Amino acid sequence: MVEEEGPFTPFKYIYANILRRSHMSVAMIGLLTVSSLLLLQALSFSFEAGSATRPESTLWGETPVKPLLEEMGFGEEISSGARRATLGVFYISSAVSLLSGYILLRSAFTISMKERRREVELLKALGFSRGEVAKLLVGEGVVLALLSGVLALFIAMPLFVNLGAYMISRGETRLFFTQPRISPLGALLHFAVLLILVAVALAGAIREVEREEGSLL
Amino acid sequence: MKESVVLVEGVKKVYGSGRKRVEALRGVDMEVKGGELVAIMGPSGAGKTTLLNIISGIEAPTKGKVTVRGIRVDSLNERERRLFRRVNIGYVFQNYNLIPSLNALENVLLPSLFSEEDLSERAMELLKMVGLQGRWDHLPGELSGGERQRVALARALLRNPPLILADEPTGNIDTTQAGKLMRILRRIAREGKAIIVATHDPVVASSCHRVLRLRDGKMGGRM
Asked: Domain for residue B21, yes or no?
């Protein structure tokens, strides 16, 4: 920090940690962005599947995936068995994406917590309570998650959706030019689920580290 | 007669049980008054760190009484001990224990992290006192061992605790730097604080007011 105005706050601590441990932060943001992307995929798969049967429930609006769905027979008369099977694939993909996202997050946090054992021990020796130390760790997780969520939503997701559409249509669509429309509700849902995932993964990581190496907090 | 800051009476500490039973402290008595700089000398494994941890309430004694400024530390619960430590004790570790991502000033301010109080000015004064005012914005990685230890000392003083505990503070720094640190400690003692330094370095011990010898968990007389 250039200016040192006012008291040293938990926010400044988190900010300094993210900024000055940049190698770790970049790695964390990378991993978090990928899991955030998987999460978006899970959400959009579910909702694409839903909107294919009920157009009014569209969450993501016009995405390049939508014409593909139409081509696959949604919106037209197809047998209910085929519809169910396709929807099933979508939902299973969602579940797999969500699970992969969680596992990634969890591993990232476990590595990060192991690296910071000494820091936590020092804070406790200085007289910080479990709650205060947890606030610092969770605060940092939340800041990183929000950053990654924005990256995933506005950069990584459009990139992948366009790339996917480009590959499936064998190069007939334009690449990287269609920005999928993201509804506010969709974005909100994304961040809500992301934060819940981060909280669960962080708690799980702390518990795992404590089981393996003894009490952390 | 100066007021007694630390009073340790018949403190025993036993780790483990059965065949793995280790007696780290076998009945230690000591007293340190305000304004005193006391060295606890002894070979490694003599129980120096255990004794400091018991005085600061990080560990509880198996037997005996520990009184710091009239507070019976051994009878406090976990939460009370934490609050007690915050107010009464400044700790200096052998390996400095600075947070690498925080600059010198931020490291000094660390104990005030969750308080509303703005102690930046006091922190700057402390850095000046330890001779590092010009380097407040340096990260620990950019400071020498001796300088890091002086930052750690400034951090220990931030809340103005009556008792400073230093565990092998000169263990990782050269003799010139060690001499500098001891001069600062003597000056702090003169201001009325009680300081206990655990060390196995006779040079460090000789610059203290009093030396207590700890051997096999017992006090082995004065020097």
From this structure: no
* Pairing between β-strand B37-41 and β-strand B22-33 as defined by DSSP bridges: unpaired
Q: What is the pLDDT of residues B121-164, one digit of tens each?
A: 999 999 999 999 899 999 999 999 999 999 999 999 999 999 99
Instruction: Tell me the domain boundaries of chain A.
Output: 19-213
Is B27 within the bounds of a domain? no
Q: How far apart are CA B12 and CA B207, in angstroms?
A: 29
**How close does chain B come to A136, measured CA to CA in Å?**
10
Question: Do A7 and B115 count as a contact with CB atoms less than 8 A apart?
Answer: yes
Residue pair B61/B13 in contact by the 8 Å Cβ criterion: yes
Domain that holds residue B135: 34-60+77-222
Instruction: Say if CB B41 and CB B213 are below 8 A apart.
Output: yes
What CATH number is associated with residue B93? 3.40.50.300
CB-based contacts of A75-82 (< 8 A; 24+ apart in sequence): none
Q: Inform me whether the pLDDT recorded for B222 exceeds 60.
A: no
Q: How large is the ipTM?
A: 0.80
Q: How many domains does chain B have?
A: 1
* CA A194 remoteness from chain centre: 5
- A131–chain B Cβ distance below 8 A for any pair: no
Q: Would you call B76 an interface residue with chain A, using a CB distance cutoff of 8 Å?
A: no
On chain B, the residues whose CB falls within 8 A of the CB of A128 are 82, 113-114
